[in-house]
Amino acid sequence: MTMRKGTNVPVTADAVRIELGWRTGPGVPDVDASALLLTDAGKVRSDGDFVFYNQPRHATGAVRHEGKKPQGAACVDELGADLGRVEPGIERIVVAASADGGTFGQVPGLYVRVLEAVTGAELARFDSDDATVETAFVLGELYRRQGGWKFRAVGQGYGSGLAGLATDFGISVDDPAPAPTRTPAPPRTPEAPPAPAPARQAPAVPPRAPEPPSAPAPPSAPVRLSKVTLTKDSPSVSLTKQGGTSGTMRVNLNWTTQGFQSKGLAGRLSRAMGALTGPDLDLCALFELTDGRKGVVQALGNSFGSLARPPYIHLDGDDRTGAVETGENLTINLDHIKDLRRVLIFVTIYEGARSFAGLHATVTLQPQHGAPVDFSLDECTVPSTVCALALLTNEGGDLIVRREARYLVPPRGVSPQRTVDQEYGWGMEWTPGRK
């Protein structure tokens, strides 16, 4: 259902996916989805009620930032919401978008959709087509109404970016923003949430005896909105300085099979049988521990690793499509930095394609306590089936992430894994493997 600004529709599903989408291309800034859980006063209770790329999961698990997924010439950033698990004190869930490196006037085809989580059925859609200089938007909101939930199309813009939007709802951020400038919002419909009632004052109870005032609770650290993009001019970042040296770091790989068909005999046979096949990519990691042990974590040969014991790196499974909800995920235990000397994260094409070009593959490194590091594999211009993506090195206790982005072309008869090994001097012995 396509909506006009200011209108609302009932949301009957208990769990929904909120899809923010746009068309990509040269000069189009990156777009990020976020959600704010608000009380009837229109404010968050704490910074924990802000769900976005640096804080991807609410403490209750009711609202989650699922991440970006390329879809051909477009991209979507998704949020998940289990409405039945939202705490009673939360009256609204604001769905917001922010533009990184430009304005929304440069973002074509911006929309937000609410989908039934299980079936994928569309419950609501709002297309935003009047943006100009805004750098953040409230696109819509889920709100309680008579024991159920509704979605309202908002379309309210901010000229002060994500920091200004977040601050306006009570979030304390690490980089103060100027006062937010907003485009006028449409009047609320009669079914929109009512204005907040005055806060009740608790009755004063005189103490039995004079007591010294208790110390105020220390303020929580402000939310960090910064993102890290490694480029040729700025190829490395210290996770120590970013605060990302404990907990875990999740590495996510996604790619698209949309419009892709295998070539050659395998492709002709597949199409004759009425099936479409796409490329199968694998997320891998070469590791070297401080005690000298070396190895690889990959789906090939079922070498999935472990988080609790060496190598403190774990691959959660083998995704053959790239189009599922999670893609491929590799997790590094940052509590064991002292045991890791170096880790090389790389991606291989197992089958179905001869190059990364056109696959729209993306990799995100997300420390549990720190800014995410994003990579795109769209720069490939050679017939490469293996990309050395990032090198993590322990330099005196400081974990450094260095952008490699090296598209390697394996010689005839040489595996992608052996090619990476030889390029980086890992010195391992390789045997043929299958999955």
Automatic annotation (TrEMBL):
Residues 228-249 have a biased composition (Polar residues). Residues 173-249 are annotated as: Disordered. InterPro entries: Stress/Tellurium_Resist, Tellurite_resistance_TerA, TerD. CDD domains: TerD_like. Residues 177-197, 204-221 have a biased composition (Pro residues). Transmembrane segments: none annotated. Residues 1-169 form the TerD domain. Belongs to the CAPAB/TerDEXZ family. This is TerD family protein. It comes from Streptomyces albiaxialis.
